[in-house]
Here is the input.
Amino acid sequence: MLKRAYGPGDMSGAEVRIGQAAFPAPFASGLEFSSPARGVWNIVHTGMLIPGAHQIYICARGCLRGVILTAAEMNAMERMSWVALEETDLFDGRLETGIEEGVAHILRGMKRRPPCVLVFISCVQQFSGLDFPHVLGRLRAQFPETDFVDCYMNPTMRKSGPTPDQIMRRQLYAPLKRPEKRDPRAVSMIGNDLGLDPECELVRMIRENGYDYRDITLCRTYEEYKSLAESALLLTTIPAAVHGASILAERLGVRHLDMTMSCSPESIESSLKLLAEALALPEPDFRKGREQAEEALRAAKEEIGDTPIALDYTAVPRPVSLARLLLDRGFRVTRIHADVFLPEERNDFEYLRKTHPELTVSAAVHAKMRFAPRFAETGNGVLAIGQKAAWFCGTRHFVNIVSGGGLYGYSGLVRLAGLMRDAFRNEKNTEEVIRRKGFGCESCLT
Amino acid sequence: MKNTARILSIYASDTSGVCSMLYELGGLVVVHDASGCNSTYSTHDEPRWYGQDSMIYISALTETDMIFGGDGKLIGDTLEAIRTLSPRFAVLCGSPMPMLTGTDFDAVAAEVEAKAGIPVLPLHTNGMRSYLSGASEALTALLGRFCSPETEAGRSGRIPVNILGATPLDFSRSEQIGSIRSILTSAGFEIVSVMAMGSNLEEIAGAGRARVNLVISSSGLAAAEYLRRKFGTPWVAGVPYGEKTSQALTRKLKESAESGENFPFCSDRIELDEGQSVLIVGESVNAGSLAKAAREDLGIPARAGIPDALQPVLAAPHDRILTDEDDAALAFAESSGVAADPLFAPVCPESIPFYRLPHEAFSGRCFRERIPNLMGGGLTRRLFESC
Here is the structure.
């Protein structure tokens, strides 16, 4: 067995008190560790949201392996194909031809042609100057009934914008075209992996006022998916979707509302007021929702008491905002796991720097995090929000959500408080839960 | 069509092979690749990831590094990790992007070694080759650097043996390696080392003590050849599947220890008619050994179907090389049955019996709990009864 070279106390460089932390990147970049928490969606999960779409990846074996087994684990291999790149493909002048022939071979071998094919290339082809539009043009000529979408698995661009995550959420809607007829009573949610809770204020406000609420997560057919383009208004609630939604709105000639919110009452209410204005609705009365959320959080605090709480960036898009909400209501948040923060988090970050300078900011990918003192220092006495926090803290008490878990608004806070109480009372089998890829997706793992 | 699949999975890559082979040895392994790319290995190719610490990292390569030259950052970050983690040694290996830009891993490793004062091994992976080639290069390089010239035999009266080519990609369940150890020990052998599951660096460094080496996957063959050149130690390639066949294998090991002759036990099989045999798909030493055991223990004619990284010496003349998905479908249709990973099932004709034989290197963790331990008496007809 590996001998540990340093004690549990030496996590310098991988964690820092927020009072001394730099924003937005508190840690120096270096070699990276990958924790075994796997609930965050990847491009395969997201691509599968288009009903009936088929994905074809053209890249090196090592890159193919991860995406193919993602599909295998979600029992969706019939929607996944590949063309493996070899060294010679990059140097023999057949980069474009090889892709065209491989994709065409795959499609001709299918008993039923899919309505849409997502063709993914990777870093090496982009770096080699692949003429991707030319390849797709030739494929469209051969298969005119199929929508081909250019997609990218290019993690070398993960730290420059737009990120692969943003690009995927943009390309996911590439087949949507400006419709002949617009539906003024329809609203489309763009870019969410998980559907919003139908009981949240946002969805209810739309539906209860006679609007049709559309979301890719609710589409069952390719036609339903295409009808997302008919809506008169596009919404986003996660930061990674804003880039694609704004481009889509321009292409379709409709308005886009960024409804990304923090956890503060002011943010919740201002976001929903924006929606009310856009739909020409009277200003909503938030009093009941606000009271219910505060009451739920009070009850959770009473039950959870001073149990240390750790949360991570995969649980919610804005973890600093959540930490602030909880700390302001007396919860004992001791740790936030995040490698970098969104610009939108700055105000909450500055606030906590002043009010709770002892709060620990802990990395997730820093090399030392492999040796985080998971059980020695913290152990099962921690309540975690998020899978990574659960693993790093070595706790079986955790809220199992990813990317906000479909929670939104005051109703989302009520549900979150309930999930925290449930996690406090009941243990989960952490290893079994967090090893499953794609929170909410089908999994072959027992 | 070569390198194209409509529905099949793909075998693990060379970088995973490197990491898998070196996981337990206290070294720092740096895969020079983009941030996030280590999740494929840690999720699908490494059953030890959750519960056993190791120092496997990614360099978080970016497009800017590639365009402007990122060797300085790779060197600096590796040195920093060595300083803070105190590994026994370090390994640097590549992926597609460094291959494209021609990163000189030999030079980078030499510079890191000069500054860090620990052994640093360059490996020449590119993410496009088989896990077997990566694991093979890693093990051979490790032996080349650490194998002690000491060859003094033990005093136990037993025959010292190394087991070469053990990674969870081919032996996902630790009981499998335990059974191999037990079979050899019961037959009068002393296990010097298992490369590389359950042995430490010191045990591997003492590999020269062995009088014979057992190669249990093709990733161990190059290392066996190295030990042959260095110490004159002969190798036998085979996995002890089935009771009778295991006994034959241990007898052959003893003969080789005496004669000094290599012996590819897994490919020493009688000629078969294709249509009347079961096709056993997998890594060549495993598939060949299982085909031999099926015939000799159970009376079931079988041959190996080898889809990945063939070493000709480890294949019998009637074994089938599976070049692509279409070829696999054709080979399956020509067999009396197919024993293969369940992710091969979609290309097996319904009329041909399909026996599930999960293989981590192909299906990752999808069927990990259902991987059978067929060592020794663990192989029964039941394997060929459950379609």
About this structure: Chain A touches chain B through 67 residues (CB under 8 Å). Chain A has a mean pLDDT of 93. The first helix of chain A runs from residue 43 to 47. Chain A has three domains: 15-37+287-434, 43-168, 183-278.
